[in-house]
Design a protein that fits this description.
By secondary structure, the chain is of the alpha/beta class. The protein is 41% helix and 22% strand. This is Response regulator.
Length: 235
């Protein structure tokens, strides 16, 4: 079965070029040219990967990314002429899997697509064997990518979920910022990105983010998930 690629690009000439090239590579491709239409197409025909421009009519790509990521976990590659570090970090924080700046080479785009789709498939296969686990008051659904604390869902972005899951699965073990960057599986990331994610996680799971109980800092090294019992229950 052919992989489905959704191209969201308001430059129709560029969208057509990408579509032609991807079809030659054996993909099924659909193009849309505004953000609202992109959301509709995602719900109608779930793609295997989305190529998403930032500057779009009706709804910017960054907002499309945010809304899609709360419901779906397929790869989203943001394609944009915006090259500022803060823009790149924002896109990744809101759920983009990768960020590619214009102009770009088609072979690079194709390689990144294949890499992320393959990784996504492997993750899904692994999670078929273990669907949930719990630690302390937290329950994690590995299929739906959801985290609950005392049975209340905590809304997380994909990147927040990955970092929290990584820390929870290794309670008490200090993870350096470099190790956490690897968990994010992105070509873009730095130490500051990790600190931003940790800060947002604390705001969502801690009663007092400034005095965290769960996500602790080891000065000069990194972060770890603190809990008296290291027992993790999988089911």
């Amino acid at each position: 079965m052919k992989k489905r690629i959704l191209v969201v690009e308001d430059d129709r000439h560029m969208a057509d070029l990408i579509q032609v090239r991807l079809k030659k590579e054996g993909y099924e491709v659909e193009c849309v040219h505004d953000g609202l239409k992109a959301l509709q197409v995602v719900e109608r025909c779930l793609p295997d990967c989305m190529l998403l421009d930032w500057m779009l009519p009706k709804m910017e790509g960054i907002e499309v990314c945010r809304q899609v990521r709360y419901q779906h976990d397929f790869p989203i590659i943001m394609i944009s002429g915006r090259t500022e570090e803060l823009d790149i970090v924002l896109a990744l924080e809101l759920g983009a899997t990768d960020y590619l700046t214009k102009p770009f080479g088609f072979r690079e785009l194709l390689t990144r697509m294949r890499m992320h789709m393959k990784r996504f498939e492997n993750e899904r296969k692994c999670k078929e064997y273990v669907s949930k686990f719990s630690i302390g008051p937290f329950h994690i659904d590995l299929i739906a990518f959801k985290v609950y604390k005392n049975n209340l869902e905590i809304p997380l972005t994909q990147r927040e979920f990955k970092v929290l899951l990584h820390l929870m699965q290794q309670p008490g073990d200090i993870q350096t910022r470099e190790q956490i960057i690897e968990v994010l599986e992105s070509s873009k990331g730095d130490r500051r990105t990790v600190d931003v994610i940790i800060r947002r996680l604390r705001e969502k799971i801690e009663k007092q983010p400034s005095a965290p109980k769960w996500i602790k800092t080891k000065n000069g090294i990194g972060y770890y998930f603190h809990i008296d019992s290291k027992e993790v229950s999988y089911y």
